[in-house]
Amino acid sequence: MNTLNNVTVLGGGVLGAQIAYQAAFHGKNVTVYDINDEALEAARERFNKLVSVYVEAMPDAEEGQAAKAAESISLSSDLAEAVVDADLVIEAVPEILDLKKKVFSDLAKVAPEKTIFATNSSTMVPSQYAAEAGRPDRFLALHFANNIWVQNVAEVMGTERTSNEAYDAVVAYAEETGMDPILVKKEQPGYVLNSLLVPLLNAASALYVNGVADVETIDHTWRKGTGAQSGPFQMYDVIGLRTAYNVSSASDNPSSIKFAEILKTEFLDKGKFGVASGEGFYKY
Q1: Where does the record place the 3-hydroxyacyl-CoA dehydrogenase C-terminal domain (predicted)?
Q2: What are the beta bridge partners of residue 120?
Q3: Residue 219 and residue 234: Cα distance in Å, rounded?
């Protein structure tokens, strides 16, 4: 399979913008699709903010490389236009199953035959919407972590029907874009990273909603006891509280449901989305 040079990212939110910018920074031809001009303008603002982040984080980069990456990214609210010559499409829409099914169903109608489809879902496995994608041999998961320029893991997970050729091409793409590919051998909800991380976050939220300890104490305990740089609620802020809400509200665990209610009333309804908005459990 040829090198995956033309990349379309579906969704210009916090992580979608990072995925797109990371690819552009490493020389890929990148288009970002989102539902309207307002969403695309927000994505453009995210690219511009990432310029200074990359300049600071990557001092050995070529002069002007960071700015050129932001300028090179194309934006479109027309799905067919956005994927017209895509080698790879990376879906980065909210963690809502019906939404992902619709996105891939719409995508399958307009994408070229050559295009590999990848989902960036952090909680779902690709076989949950493989039927909608319509190309089982060229459909898999490619999961990124937030703060992609530092936490540069890219988990590659296929289904039983993903071809070796498509899988290897996506692994190569990850390497070409500065990522450390994590080869997941079989479908696993949460992949490797979130299979380790989610139990920690769930335990922290349960301690919080049940009044065992406050946010600062929980985070302090984790940092001191393990030597970690961040506590679980600092991680929640980086991940984004909208994502935390979507995941928690879909759970049947009473503590998770209570946590989702708190996230909505005390944070989301007040415009506190985490690091992206400047405030979540902490102020930034």
Answers
A1: 190-284
A2: none
A3: 7
Phi, psi for residue 217 in degrees, rounded to 5: -65, -40
Angle 65-72/14-25 helices, nearest 10 degrees? 120
Round to whole Å and give the CA distance between 170 and 233: 32
pTM reported for the whole predicted model: 0.85
Sequence-distant (≥ 6) Cβ neighbours of residue 117 within 8 angstroms: 89, 91, 104, 107, 108, 111, 133, 135, 138, 139, 140
- According to DSSP, the β-strands at 139-144 and 153-158 are antiparallel
pLDDT in tens, 21-52: 999 999 999 999 999 999 999 999 999 999 99
Cβ neighbors of 53 (< 8 A, separation 6 or more) are 149
Q: Quick check: helix, strand or coil at residue 144? A: strand
Q: What structural domains and CATH numbers belong to the chain?
A: 6-184 (3.40.50.720), 198-277 (1.10.1040.10)
Cα–Cα distance for residue pair 177/29, rounded to 1 Å: 12
User: Is the Cβ–Cβ distance between 142 and 174 less than 8 Å?
Assistant: yes
* Structure confidence by residue, pLDDT tens digits, 143-202: 999 899 999 999 999 999 999 999 999 999 999 999 999 999 999 999 999 999 999 999
Q: Which residues face 10 on adjacent strands?
A: 33, 91
